[in-house]
Amino acid sequence: MGLYRNHILPRLIHHTLNNAECEKLRRRAVDGLEGQVVEVGFGSGLNVPFYPPEVRRVHGVDPSRLALRMAQPLIESSSIPVTVSELSGDSLPFESRSIDAALTTWTLCTIPDLPRALGELRRVLKPGGRLRFLEHGWSPDAQVRRWQHWLAPLHRRIGGGCELARRIDRELADAGFRIEQLSNFYREGPKVGSYMYLGTAVNPVD
């Protein structure tokens, strides 16, 4: 699985999520970002062209060396400074309360210890800082959920640990974030993996 996970899967993810529909969703996801931004699950950098001008710097974090290498052309062409670290989301190399905003797109489904990673995001975000998220997960449709449950073991193997049915809003709330805005919808494709959570979560002021 090392060859598949390290060399094939990053390319599959890049091509699967690099299309016109995903581009529209990415534009919505980055809306409102400003200041110093950490992007967890930076991947091959597909969000880079859409960062708004209010963003001063992006700190990208991703465990895939290949994906970060694939991102270099987009990073080099960006008018916004971008630095990347080959790290997972559960240990962020930033001081507490030092980051203005955060971004995740199709990321929270694959983090093994999601509560720890969300705790790290809360630690580095300033009080009142916002997390913009675009994720797939748990469907409210019982028939779709049956398929999500049935396909989960196979999907974890071929999707690098991707969970089909995480309740993104609940995970964020359980981590202490306050959901400020949330849109749920099915994007194009099989419903089992296309129920979307798009929104904003706030790191509450102490």
Task: Please supply descriptive tags for the structure shown above.
206 residues; alpha/beta; 6 helices; globular
What do these coordinates show?
With 206 residues, the protein is an alpha/beta fold. The protein is built from 6 helices and 7 strands; from the N terminus they run H-H-E-E-H-E-E-H-E-H-H-E-E. The protein has a 7-stranded mixed β-sheet, with helices on both faces. The protein starts with a helix and ends with a strand. The model has no long low-confidence stretch (mean pLDDT 96).
Quick description:
The protein has 206 residues and is α/β, with parallel strands linked by helices.
Question: Secondary-structure map with pairings?
Answer:
Layout: H1 2-16, H2 20-30, E1 35-40, E2 55-61, H3 65-77, E3 82-85, E4 99-105, H4 114-124, E5 125-136, H5 142-158, H6 168-174, E6 178-186, E7 195-202
Parallel strand pairs: 1-2, 1-4, 2-3, 4-5
Antiparallel strand pairs: 5-7, 6-7
Number of helices: 6
User: How many β-strand runs?
Assistant: 7
Residue-averaged pLDDT:
96
Q: What about the largest sheet?
A: 7 strands, mixed
Task: List low-pLDDT spans.
Answer: none
Note the beta-strand portion.
25-35%
Shape: globular
Sketch the topology as an H/E string, one letter per element: HHEEHEEHEHHEE
Structural classification: alpha/beta
What integer value in Å does the Rg equal? Answer: 16 Å
Alpha-carbon distance between the two ends: 44 Å
Specify the helix fraction band. 25-40%
The side-by-side strand order for the widest beta sheet comes to 3-2-1-4-5-7-6
